[in-house]
Design brief:
By secondary structure, this protein is of the alpha/beta class. The chain has ten helices and eight strands. It binds zinc ion (ZN). The site of zinc ion (ZN) has 4 residues, from loops.
C-alpha cells in the first residue's frame, strides 16, 4: 500500500497553463490533470494520492474549494485551501471541514504571508477546532526568491504557538535547510512530508538521519507530482536503509491516520 500525501492537479481548462508556468525551471511528469495523476499512480503503484488545492487569489477561494470538494473521491483525497487575504477565512475553513475534506493547504511564498502574522491566528485555531490538518510549503521554492517566509526556527515557533494544530511541513520540514531542520525541528510532534526531497537535493545519509531523528511515525511519503516522478520517488524512498515497520509507517500508515481512513 502506498499513499502519496503531496500531489497537485488542475482543472482541464487551466492545466496546460499551470504546466507552462514552470517551464524551464521544473520538469513535468504528467499533463497536470486528474487523469494524468491517475495514470502516474498506476505506473508507480500508488494506491491513493492527496491532492493539494491552493487558492491563488482571494476572489477564487469559493470556486477552488468547490472544485476540490468535487475531486474528493476515489483514489484521490483532497485538501482544501484558503487565502490569508480573503474576507472570512475561518468560514472557508469550516466549509472545507463540512465538505468532508481532512486538511487545508497554504503556501507562504505563493500567498505572501507569515505564520508570525497575528491577524491569521484565528485561522490556525479554526483548523484545530475543526480537526483539519494544516499542510504548508516550507523552505526553498524554485519559483520564488529569498527572503523566505518560513525558516525551521519560525516553523518550530509556530508549532509552539499552536501545539494542538496537526501540522504537516512539506519538503522534510524546510526544503534545502536540512542542517537547521535537524537542529530546530527534528523530534517535534509535527509531520514532515517527503515531497521533492530527491537525491539532487539531499544525501541519502542526511535523509536517513533526519527520518530517524524525527521518528518514522511522523514522516509521510509524498512526491509533489506532477513536478516529481511518483515512480522514481517510490523507488528512491524504498531504497533507503530503513526497517519494514518504518517503511510501512512512511508509505501509508501515518497518512491513513491523518486522513482518518477506515481499514
Ligand atoms: Zn507541492
Amino acid at each position: 500500500m502506498i499513499i502519496d500525501f503531496h500531489t497537485h492537479f488542475y482543472p482541464e481548462k487551466v492545466a496546460e497553463k499551470a504546466m507552462a508556468h514552470c517551464q524551464g525551471l521544473l520538469q513535468v511528469y504528467s499533463d497536470g490533470t486528474r487523469t494524468g495523476l491517475l495514470d502516474s499512480m498506476g505506473d508507480a503503484n500508488v494506491d491513493l494520492s492527496v491532492g493539494l488545492a491552493l487558492v491563488n487569489n482571494p476572489e477564487n477561494s469559493a470556486s477552488v474549494n468547490r472544485w476540490a470538494a468535487q475531486q474528493n473521491h476515489g483514489p484521490i483525497c483532497m485538501a482544501g485551501s484558503f487565502h490569508p487575504a480573503e474576507s472570512d477565512p475561518a468560514a472557508t475553513i469550516r466549509t472545507i471541514a463540512n465538505c468532508g475534506m481532512r486538511g487545508v493547504k497554504v503556501h507562504p511564498e505563493y500567498q505572501q504571508f507569515s505564520f508570525e502574522d497575528k491577524t491569521l491566528y484565528p485561522c490556525w485555531e479554526e483548523c484545530s477546532s475543526q480537526e483539519l490538518f494544516l499542510i504548508t510549503h516550507a523552505g526553498f521554492d524554485i519559483m520564488y526568491h529569498p527572503p523566505w517566509h518560513t525558516s525551521p526556527r519560525s516553523l518550530a515557533q509556530f508549532h509552539k504557538n499552536f501545539p494542538k494544530l496537526t501540522l504537516v511541513l512539506a519538503h522534510l520540514g524546510s526544503m534545502t535547510f536540512w542542517d537547521e531542520v535537524e537542529k530546530e525541528l527534528a523530534g517535534l510532534p509535527v509531520f514532515f512530508d517527503l515531497a521533492f526531497v530527491t537525491p539532487e537535493y539531499i544525501s541519502r545519509e542526511q535523509l536517513v538521519r533526519i527520518i530517524r531523528r524525527h521518528g518514522a511515525e511522523r514522516i509521510l511519503f509524498g512526491t509533489d507530482a506532477p513536478w516529481c516522478s511518483q515512480k522514481k520517488h517510490v523507488e528512491w524512498i524504498d531504497s533507503l536503509p530503513l526497517g519494514g515497520n518504518e517503511k510501512a509507517a512512511i508509505f501509508y500508515k501515518n497518512a491513513a491516520g491523518l486522513l482518518k481512513l477506515e481499514n
